[in-house]
Amino acid sequence: MTIIRNGLSKAQDTLKRKLITEDDYNWKLGESEEDESSGVQVLKYIGGFDISFSKHHPSSACGTLVVLDFKTLNVVYEDSSIVTIDVPYVPGFLAFREAPVFVQLLKKMQDSSHSCYPQLLMIDGNGILHPRVGDLMLLVVKNGFGSACHLGVLADLPTIGVGKNLHHVDGLTNSRVRELLEAEDNFNVGFIPLVGDSGNTLGAALHSSKGSFKPIFVSVGHRVSLASAVEIVKRTCKYRVPEPIRQADIRSRDYLRKHH
DNA sequence: GCGACAG
DNA sequence: ATCTTGTCGC
């Protein structure tokens, strides 16, 4: 197992060299006034990706890519694919299971020059809120490289990582996060920065919808800042899980049920 | 040594 | 991730 982890870590480090953790895109969030009429690009198409697995066939799964209209949150594109996944799940290396299907679905959309190709993707898993994988050429590793980072680099698209559970890393534990959330002295507008023992801000915990005490964990995937990521996630939450991910989740499960 | 460990 | 019914509440 340790030999496997070493190989996966090395592959992760290679991709990590391309990671960008700041805003790097040519559109805006389309606040109100200066929208489309002013000529600037506005964020319109947000993609969501998820995989569901079969109960009796653990190696067969369904990957689903959806695209939603940022403003209406309507699903404007959907594509699912049944695949065989033999790569085992190893904590810290989730992306290696998801990457093949993800790339296949995205490439299909790209090749067909679809009009609603996503400007940004939301991934169910973490971004830089992820365990260290070792030093990178003597450089200090400032953050991890979760599946949202991994898929973002592969697609060369901005990505946001959204976890439903906390992956304990850099001293961040459920009890620690609970303390931070309860100590709402930081009456931040709904989210708490997650600062690890290293002093780095790895993500944010936020109560995304009214009826959920359980937070979601947002972190930078690729080519977006944490501030932008949080803002975008907030705007796409009708329920606890942001719509792009929720829709991909629901539809991948449905598709798998119908076709297996 | 033991437990923890995204989906 | 997946195994799973009802149930309490807005």
From TrEMBL:
<keyword id="KW-0255">Endonuclease</keyword>
<dbReference type="GO" id="GO:0016891">
    <property type="term" value="F:RNA endonuclease activity producing 5'-phosphomonoesters, hydrolytic mechanism"/>
</dbReference>
<dbReference type="GO" id="GO:0005730">
    <property type="term" value="C:nucleolus"/>
</dbReference>
<dbReference type="Pfam" id="PF04493">
    <property type="entry name" value="Endonuclease_5"/>
</dbReference>
<dbReference type="GO" id="GO:0006281">
    <property type="term" value="P:DNA repair"/>
</dbReference>
<dbReference type="InterPro" id="IPR007581">
    <property type="entry name" value="Endonuclease-V"/>
</dbReference>
<keyword id="KW-0540">Nuclease</keyword>
<protein>
    <submittedName>
        <fullName>Putative endonuclease V family protein</fullName>
    </submittedName>
</protein>
<dbReference type="GO" id="GO:0003727">
    <property type="term" value="F:single-stranded RNA binding"/>
</dbReference>
<keyword id="KW-0963">Cytoplasm</keyword>
<keyword id="KW-0378">Hydrolase</keyword>
<dbReference type="GO" id="GO:0005737">
    <property type="term" value="C:cytoplasm"/>
</dbReference>
